[in-house]
Amino acid sequence: MQPLSRLTKKxxxxxxxxxxxxxxxxxxxxxxxVQSPFTVRAxxxxxxxxxxxxxxxxxxxxxxxxxYGKNADRKLPMAxxxxxxxxxxxxxxxxxxxxxxxxxxAQSMPKVKxxxxxxxxxxxxxxxxxxxxxxxxxSAVVLAEGVGKQFLGKEAAEKPxxxxxxxxxxxAVAAFAKRMNDKALELGCKDTLFITPNGLDASxxxxxxxxxxxxxxxxxxxxxxxxxxxxxxxxxxxxxxxLKITRTPSHSFYANGRxxxxxxxxxxxxxxDGAQSGKTGFTNQAGYCYVGSLQRDGKxxxxxxxxxxxxxxxSWKWSDTRKLMQYGLDRYVFHSFSEDTKAFPESVLQPVPxxxxxxxxxxxxxxxxxxxxxxxTAGLEKGTEGLLMSEADEVHVxxxxxxxxxxxxxxxxxxxxxxxxxxxxxxxxxxxxxxxxAEAIDPxxxxxxxxxxxxxxxxxx
Length: 461
Description:
single chain, alpha+beta, 13 helices
């Protein structure tokens, strides 16, 4: 794909007439698809028609389960869909009412841009609307520098950003990108690499554990992009603010003697009932990309699309998004795991014998009752209350319980688990604990029992 990208840039420099650009766009789209080992369908649950996107995922936001995937784990550039991570991190790390200065480096960003100027000041709030509604590349860098410099030491943090040299700006952006990558790893996204805060095509040299140097690009997978979106809309402490920004039709503000109006370009918000959030993207390498969410009928669905056509196929991403969302709405319903808990065999919670435990009478066997842990999430190692499932899906329940215990045993001791699996993946695991405790036999207890028995016999005589 790299040679085609270089050829594209050469042709752009020569300023080919408009009709030639259209022809080249169609040719490039076809060549990318031919070059790439994309499959039409990635599993045995085909959509009614093939998707345009080279890589796509439909995800249940509540559980993170992939309901449909096409090249779901293939790493590709993701263009401005990057900005969902930029937005959520800025919301989590900065005060929306704070002001950030503009550096010469931020001013130099290519279109699409707010056209900020060196030395100007903008509030974080206004920059975030600029970032998410209009996808301004310069706003992304202003935000990244303002937050990133806080991680470069006291001197950098206190220096006005508008006074940064180009190198200092790059260091601040790199510090912010590190936080983006740290958050991605925290979410389990191991195939995601953020280099820029705006999604512009970029690459960097990485040294592997064996010392090998490889060139890797700014990119992610459809599955991991959907996972990041699930965090933004459902898990982050700033999820409500993220949703408010990304679903706002327009935002106007006045700053530095100029008036601005940012209009939301996420057309999906008007395409389906329940459309909730989303972000578009495009670069020469990435093609058209999109990640969006929909909430309806008790379901929260996420669609992530990568390499979804090149000019002039801007509408393909909307077609694929609607198709995948409708597929999820029509095929999947919520299934609560509590229904399966009620159906498990009573023998699983049969009292368990305890060796070397004190009893009411010397030599008597002790048994402890069991129960399922109910203290908040203490009984959950992994999980969700339920799962979106189709008629073809089945829940497999596995039980593991110790057959014998050894005293002493405290009340609430974990002795087993109940796991709920779908497609061999554990989505919920509850702990089985003892409902009471048992003390261990010791010499003193034995002496007391012998004395009791002797006295009992003496009284009987």
